[in-house]
């Protein structure tokens, strides 16, 4: 759950040689603390696993920017030599601002606007993953006008049920993403893509969901996609050279969970891909993957300061201690959104060995603003204590909001006993900056 360089010394959390107390005093709370060295280690582990298992057939490790992206993180990824998968014009702008090579960027998403596709093509983005027939037309028209040929993959829905929450399961039939194999939509998209100008169809893509701990779903999806590649070869007497298997590899949020091993994941995938290609007499395609959470999730923890504690008597004699912190659903929406579970630790001192039933809650005006619904926690926790929640690197800061007009927290990178801000904390000035006082304009027809 914790980054490689996190440890407790005399009861106090230390990350990459930086004490939690010193970090909170210097940068305030809530605070996202990202272990820079751990981020690099995990990124390189996925890159090495892909290359070691697929050899000459390894494609690109595309870091999924939706998990968390900033200019500094994009610079780390550029230096390591991987790609970035972006799913909006904003994420693309961050990558480009970091000087990230456009040919190592992949544009994703189920509803790319004309402006976003134009931005990508003008920037020279290497790959666009098309999600609908309308998008294929848009890419074709924009690329043709620009006088370029855009490399395209088709997002395919293989009909695989990932063992995860419905909101983050993306490859069964009844979802907004991709072209279904079973309905024939995938084949129709292939035929259309081949007929359009400005497009070169290079392969197919899928993403079966998120927070998956077993390899069977990835293996079944690979089989279905290779069957589709075989049908393509049979129909057109040529082979599509690329296969992107997406991401979704799970990480540990609780002590009884184990983060998916890159070597194990790629070994299993390579075995299935190679066996299926042999069965159908296909050349092994260049295989790419898109880990996001699996890279950044464990690198980061969130520091909170306890504001109040309150005993609430439940049915019978049971009492629960409500521990309120200075953040909540505005910096971690996942527990409220789909019941995600997290762990927590006292970060500034050694706690009492005696525990009691507790609930970690935020400061928002919502009864659902609960970070951890039930945990046995130190009974001596008090206002001013620091709590640390591990594995918040993915979808914490990236899904953060200004609900109740709370400024979004800072992100601090730590390494070798030093700390630096890579995303500053918002201020009241930032919150007020979008308010305007302008004269009304007529919106009547013809005006």
Structure description:
It is globular and about 70 Å long. Mean pLDDT is 94; it is low at 164-172. The protein has 447 residues and is of the alpha/beta class. Strand 1 and strand 2 (12-15) form a beta hairpin. Helix 2 packs parallel to helix 9 (262-280), helix 5 (114-123) packs across helix 6 (133-146) and helix 8 (216-236) packs parallel to helix 9 (262-280). It folds into two domains: 6-34 and 298-432, Lyase, Ornithine Decarboxylase, Chain A, domain 1 (Beta Barrel); 36-294, Alpha-Beta Barrel (TIM Barrel), CATH 3.20.20.10. The chain contains twelve helices and 21 strands.
Set out the fold topology:
Elements: E1 6-9, E2 12-15, E3 18-19, H1 20-27, E4 31-35, H2 36-54, E5 58-64, H3 71-80, E6 83-86, H4 89-97, E7 105-107, H5 114-123, E8 127-130, H6 133-146, E9 150-157, E10 179-180, H7 185-195, E11 199-205, H8 216-236, E12 242-244, H9 262-280, E13 286-289, H10 293-296, E14 300-313, E15 319-325, H11 334-338, E16 345-346, E17 355-361, E18 370-378, E19 386-390, E20 410-415, E21 418-423, H12 428-432
Parallel strand pairs: 4-20, 5-6, 5-13, 6-7, 7-8, 8-9, 9-10, 9-11, 11-12, 12-13, 15-17
Antiparallel strand pairs: 1-2, 2-3, 4-14, 14-15, 14-19, 16-19, 17-18, 20-21
